TrEMBL record:
It comes from the Bacteria. One of its GO terms (cellular component) is plasma membrane. One of its GO terms (molecular function) is ABC-type nickel transporter activity. This is Nickel import system ATP-binding protein NikD. The complex is composed of two ATP-binding proteins (NikD and NikE), two transmembrane proteins (NikB and NikC) and a solute-binding protein (NikA). Coiled coil: none annotated. It comes from Nonomuraea turkmeniaca. Belongs to the ABC transporter superfamily. Its EC number is 7.2.2.11. SUPFAM superfamilies: P-loop containing nucleoside triphosphate hydrolases. Keywords: ATP-binding, Cell membrane, Ion transport, Membrane, Nickel, Nickel transport, Nucleotide-binding, Translocase, Transport.
Protein backbone atom coordinates (compact mmCIF):
# COMPACT_ATOMS: atom_id res chain seq x y z
CA UNK A 1 0.00 0.00 0.00
CA UNK A 2 2.86 2.34 0.87
CA UNK A 3 6.44 1.96 -0.29
CA UNK A 4 8.99 4.63 0.52
CA UNK A 5 12.70 4.65 -0.25
CA UNK A 6 15.25 7.32 0.64
CA UNK A 7 12.64 9.97 1.34
CA UNK A 8 14.01 13.39 2.19
CA UNK A 9 11.80 16.35 2.85
CA UNK A 10 13.51 19.71 2.97
CA UNK A 11 12.31 23.20 3.85
CA UNK A 12 14.97 25.53 2.50
CA UNK A 13 18.27 24.00 3.49
CA UNK A 14 16.83 22.16 6.48
CA UNK A 15 16.04 18.45 6.18
CA UNK A 16 12.95 17.93 8.34
CA UNK A 17 12.37 14.29 7.43
CA UNK A 18 14.85 11.66 6.34
CA UNK A 19 13.24 8.24 6.00
CA UNK A 20 15.32 5.53 4.29
CA UNK A 21 12.60 2.84 4.29
CA UNK A 22 8.90 2.86 5.09
CA UNK A 23 6.63 0.06 3.92
CA UNK A 24 3.02 -0.57 4.86
CA UNK A 25 1.44 -3.73 3.47
CA UNK A 26 -2.19 -4.73 3.20
CA UNK A 27 -3.81 -5.04 6.63
CA UNK A 28 -0.67 -3.80 8.31
CA UNK A 29 -0.29 -0.99 10.82
CA UNK A 30 2.91 1.02 10.99
CA UNK A 31 3.32 3.81 13.51
CA UNK A 32 5.63 6.80 13.43
CA UNK A 33 6.43 8.06 16.90
CA UNK A 34 8.62 10.85 18.24
CA UNK A 35 8.46 14.12 20.07
CA UNK A 36 6.96 17.34 18.75
CA UNK A 37 8.79 18.70 15.72
CA UNK A 38 10.54 15.42 14.89
CA UNK A 39 9.03 15.30 11.39
CA UNK A 40 6.17 12.84 11.80
CA UNK A 41 3.41 14.92 10.19
CA UNK A 42 5.71 16.16 7.45
CA UNK A 43 6.56 12.56 6.55
CA UNK A 44 2.89 11.55 6.49
CA UNK A 45 1.73 14.53 4.43
CA UNK A 46 4.58 14.23 1.94
CA UNK A 47 3.37 10.74 1.05
CA UNK A 48 0.19 12.23 -0.40
CA UNK A 49 1.91 15.18 -2.04
CA UNK A 50 0.54 17.54 0.60
CA UNK A 51 3.73 19.43 1.41
CA UNK A 52 3.67 21.93 -1.47
CA UNK A 53 6.40 24.19 -0.05
CA UNK A 54 8.84 21.38 0.58
CA UNK A 55 11.55 20.00 -1.64
CA UNK A 56 11.25 16.23 -1.81
CA UNK A 57 13.58 13.53 -3.03
CA UNK A 58 13.35 9.76 -3.02
CA UNK A 59 10.67 7.30 -4.06
CA UNK A 60 7.10 7.34 -2.84
CA UNK A 61 4.56 4.77 -3.98
CA UNK A 62 1.04 4.81 -2.58
CA UNK A 63 -1.48 2.23 -3.85
CA UNK A 64 0.95 1.50 -6.66
CA UNK A 65 1.13 5.12 -7.80
CA UNK A 66 4.40 7.01 -7.98
CA UNK A 67 3.29 10.07 -6.03
CA UNK A 68 6.15 12.34 -7.10
CA UNK A 69 5.73 11.86 -10.83
CA UNK A 70 2.02 11.08 -11.14
CA UNK A 71 -0.14 13.54 -13.04
CA UNK A 72 -2.39 15.60 -10.69
CA UNK A 73 -5.51 13.83 -11.92
CA UNK A 74 -4.18 10.37 -11.02
CA UNK A 75 -3.02 11.68 -7.66
CA UNK A 76 -6.48 13.08 -6.89
CA UNK A 77 -8.01 9.67 -7.60
CA UNK A 78 -5.83 8.13 -4.91
CA UNK A 79 -5.81 10.98 -2.43
CA UNK A 80 -8.88 11.05 -0.24
CA UNK A 81 -10.25 7.88 -1.78
CA UNK A 82 -7.97 4.82 -1.92
CA UNK A 83 -5.57 6.54 0.47
CA UNK A 84 -7.44 8.59 3.05
CA UNK A 85 -6.08 11.13 5.44
CA UNK A 86 -7.53 11.27 8.95
CA UNK A 87 -6.50 14.28 11.01
CA UNK A 88 -6.52 15.11 14.70
CA UNK A 89 -9.71 17.19 14.78
CA UNK A 90 -12.25 15.99 12.25
CA UNK A 91 -14.93 18.39 13.43
CA UNK A 92 -12.77 21.30 12.30
CA UNK A 93 -12.62 19.81 8.80
CA UNK A 94 -16.36 19.18 8.55
CA UNK A 95 -18.41 22.05 7.23
CA UNK A 96 -20.57 23.15 10.21
CA UNK A 97 -23.82 23.89 8.36
CA UNK A 98 -23.91 20.62 6.41
CA UNK A 99 -25.47 17.40 7.68
CA UNK A 100 -23.12 14.41 7.81
CA UNK A 101 -25.17 12.52 5.21
CA UNK A 102 -24.94 15.41 2.77
CA UNK A 103 -21.20 15.62 3.35
CA UNK A 104 -20.80 11.93 2.66
CA UNK A 105 -22.96 12.06 -0.46
CA UNK A 106 -20.95 15.00 -1.80
CA UNK A 107 -17.66 13.26 -1.12
CA UNK A 108 -18.86 10.15 -2.94
CA UNK A 109 -20.06 12.14 -5.96
CA UNK A 110 -16.87 14.17 -6.05
CA UNK A 111 -15.02 10.89 -6.53
CA UNK A 112 -17.53 9.73 -9.14
CA UNK A 113 -19.06 7.08 -6.93
CA UNK A 114 -22.58 5.95 -6.29
CA UNK A 115 -24.10 7.51 -3.18
CA UNK A 116 -27.01 5.29 -2.19
CA UNK A 117 -28.51 5.16 1.30
CA UNK A 118 -27.29 1.58 1.52
CA UNK A 119 -23.67 2.42 0.72
CA UNK A 120 -23.71 5.24 3.25
CA UNK A 121 -25.39 3.17 5.97
CA UNK A 122 -22.91 0.34 5.47
CA UNK A 123 -19.99 2.75 5.88
CA UNK A 124 -21.51 4.04 9.12
CA UNK A 125 -22.06 0.52 10.42
CA UNK A 126 -18.46 -0.40 9.56
CA UNK A 127 -17.33 2.15 12.15
CA UNK A 128 -20.07 1.17 14.62
CA UNK A 129 -22.08 4.36 14.14
CA UNK A 130 -25.87 4.46 13.86
CA UNK A 131 -26.75 5.46 10.26
CA UNK A 132 -29.35 7.81 11.81
CA UNK A 133 -26.42 10.09 12.69
CA UNK A 134 -26.20 10.95 8.98
CA UNK A 135 -29.06 13.38 9.63
CA UNK A 136 -27.07 15.29 12.24
CA UNK A 137 -24.85 18.34 11.87
CA UNK A 138 -21.17 18.04 12.85
CA UNK A 139 -21.69 19.92 16.14
CA UNK A 140 -24.44 17.45 17.08
CA UNK A 141 -22.05 14.52 17.37
CA UNK A 142 -19.27 13.87 19.87
CA UNK A 143 -15.58 14.13 19.05
CA UNK A 144 -15.27 10.35 18.96
CA UNK A 145 -18.29 10.04 16.68
CA UNK A 146 -16.89 12.75 14.40
CA UNK A 147 -13.60 10.88 14.18
CA UNK A 148 -15.41 7.63 13.39
CA UNK A 149 -17.43 9.51 10.77
CA UNK A 150 -14.16 10.66 9.17
CA UNK A 151 -13.15 7.00 9.02
CA UNK A 152 -16.60 6.06 7.66
CA UNK A 153 -16.09 8.59 4.86
CA UNK A 154 -12.80 6.89 4.02
CA UNK A 155 -14.50 3.49 4.01
CA UNK A 156 -17.36 4.74 1.80
CA UNK A 157 -14.80 6.03 -0.67
CA UNK A 158 -13.11 2.63 -0.77
CA UNK A 159 -10.01 3.43 1.25
CA UNK A 160 -7.34 0.73 1.18
CA UNK A 161 -4.99 2.63 3.42
CA UNK A 162 -5.60 5.28 6.05
CA UNK A 163 -2.94 7.80 6.95
CA UNK A 164 -3.84 9.07 10.39
CA UNK A 165 -2.14 11.97 12.16
CA UNK A 166 -2.77 11.82 15.91
CA UNK A 167 -6.31 10.51 15.31
CA UNK A 168 -7.12 10.14 19.00
CA UNK A 169 -5.10 12.80 20.78
CA UNK A 170 -7.96 15.34 20.80
CA UNK A 171 -10.32 12.79 22.36
CA UNK A 172 -11.11 11.65 25.90
CA UNK A 173 -9.38 8.45 26.94
CA UNK A 174 -12.58 6.37 26.90
CA UNK A 175 -13.46 7.62 23.43
CA UNK A 176 -9.92 7.00 22.19
CA UNK A 177 -10.48 3.30 22.78
CA UNK A 178 -13.59 3.34 20.56
CA UNK A 179 -11.69 4.86 17.67
CA UNK A 180 -8.77 2.47 18.08
CA UNK A 181 -11.22 -0.44 18.29
CA UNK A 182 -12.79 0.60 15.01
CA UNK A 183 -9.43 0.88 13.27
CA UNK A 184 -8.43 -2.57 14.54
CA UNK A 185 -11.68 -4.06 13.31
CA UNK A 186 -11.29 -2.52 9.85
CA UNK A 187 -7.80 -3.97 9.59
CA UNK A 188 -9.00 -7.41 10.53
CA UNK A 189 -12.20 -7.42 8.49
CA UNK A 190 -11.18 -5.49 5.39
CA UNK A 191 -7.41 -5.71 5.31
CA UNK A 192 -7.23 -1.95 5.73
CA UNK A 193 -3.65 -0.72 6.00
CA UNK A 194 -2.82 1.97 8.49
CA UNK A 195 -0.01 4.48 8.79
CA UNK A 196 -0.38 6.09 12.16
CA UNK A 197 1.41 9.14 13.51
CA UNK A 198 1.25 9.37 17.27
CA UNK A 199 3.16 10.45 20.31
CA UNK A 200 1.03 8.07 22.37
CA UNK A 201 3.18 4.99 22.86
CA UNK A 202 0.47 3.23 24.86
CA UNK A 203 -1.86 3.51 21.87
CA UNK A 204 0.87 2.48 19.46
CA UNK A 205 1.66 -0.64 21.48
CA UNK A 206 -1.97 -1.78 21.19
CA UNK A 207 -2.30 -1.46 17.43
CA UNK A 208 0.99 -1.19 15.52
CA UNK A 209 2.88 -4.08 13.95
CA UNK A 210 5.94 -1.97 13.31
CA UNK A 211 7.26 1.30 14.65
CA UNK A 212 9.53 4.02 13.32
CA UNK A 213 11.00 6.31 15.94
CA UNK A 214 11.89 9.79 14.67
CA UNK A 215 14.03 12.43 16.30
CA UNK A 216 15.01 15.74 14.68
CA UNK A 217 13.86 14.50 11.27
CA UNK A 218 15.83 11.27 11.40
CA UNK A 219 14.62 7.70 11.93
CA UNK A 220 16.65 6.64 14.95
CA UNK A 221 15.06 3.23 15.42
CA UNK A 222 12.61 0.96 13.63
CA UNK A 223 11.35 -2.56 13.91
CA UNK A 224 8.58 -4.77 15.25
CA UNK A 225 6.49 -2.74 17.69
CA UNK A 226 6.66 -5.38 20.40
CA UNK A 227 10.45 -5.51 20.20
CA UNK A 228 11.11 -1.78 19.94
CA UNK A 229 8.78 -0.97 22.81
CA UNK A 230 9.87 -3.86 25.01
CA UNK A 231 13.59 -3.48 24.44
CA UNK A 232 14.45 -0.14 22.82
CA UNK A 233 17.99 -0.10 21.50
CA UNK A 234 18.23 3.65 21.06
CA UNK A 235 18.59 5.91 24.12
CA UNK A 236 16.01 8.32 22.70
CA UNK A 237 13.39 5.56 22.48
CA UNK A 238 14.13 4.65 26.10
CA UNK A 239 13.61 8.30 27.04
CA UNK A 240 10.29 8.38 25.19
CA UNK A 241 9.16 5.24 26.98
CA UNK A 242 10.25 6.52 30.38
CA UNK A 243 8.21 9.69 29.78
CA UNK A 244 5.05 7.56 29.67
CA UNK A 245 2.72 8.17 32.60
N1 LIG B 1 5.58 24.53 5.80
C1 LIG B 1 6.68 24.48 6.56
N2 LIG B 1 7.71 25.34 6.34
C2 LIG B 1 8.83 25.29 7.08
N3 LIG B 1 9.05 24.39 8.07
C3 LIG B 1 8.07 23.53 8.34
C4 LIG B 1 6.85 23.52 7.61
N4 LIG B 1 6.05 22.52 8.11
C5 LIG B 1 6.78 21.95 9.10
N5 LIG B 1 7.98 22.54 9.24
C6 LIG B 1 9.03 22.18 10.22
O1 LIG B 1 9.34 20.81 10.08
C7 LIG B 1 9.66 20.23 11.35
C8 LIG B 1 8.84 18.97 11.55
O2 LIG B 1 7.47 19.33 11.75
P1 LIG B 1 6.33 18.25 11.87
O3 LIG B 1 5.04 18.99 11.94
O4 LIG B 1 6.49 17.24 10.81
O5 LIG B 1 6.65 17.59 13.28
P2 LIG B 1 5.77 16.55 14.11
O6 LIG B 1 6.71 15.43 14.50
O7 LIG B 1 4.55 16.18 13.37
O8 LIG B 1 5.42 17.39 15.41
P3 LIG B 1 4.06 17.41 16.29
O9 LIG B 1 4.14 16.18 17.18
O10 LIG B 1 4.18 18.67 17.10
O11 LIG B 1 2.89 17.40 15.40
C9 LIG B 1 9.38 21.30 12.39
O12 LIG B 1 10.59 21.85 12.79
C10 LIG B 1 8.54 22.31 11.65
O13 LIG B 1 8.75 23.58 12.16
NI1 LIG C 1 2.51 16.50 13.78
Amino acid sequence: MIEVRDLRVRYGTRVVADVPVLDVGEGECVAIVGESGSGKSTTLLSLLGLTPDAEISGQIRVCGLDVRTAPPRRLREIRGARAALVMQSPQAALSPATRLGVLMRRALRLHGREATEQIMSEAMEAVLLDPALLRRYPHEVSGGQAQRFAIALAIALGAEVILADEPTSALDVTVQAEVVGVLRRLRAERGLALLLVSHDLALVSTIADRVLVMKDGVVVESGAAAEVLAAPSHPYTRELLEALP
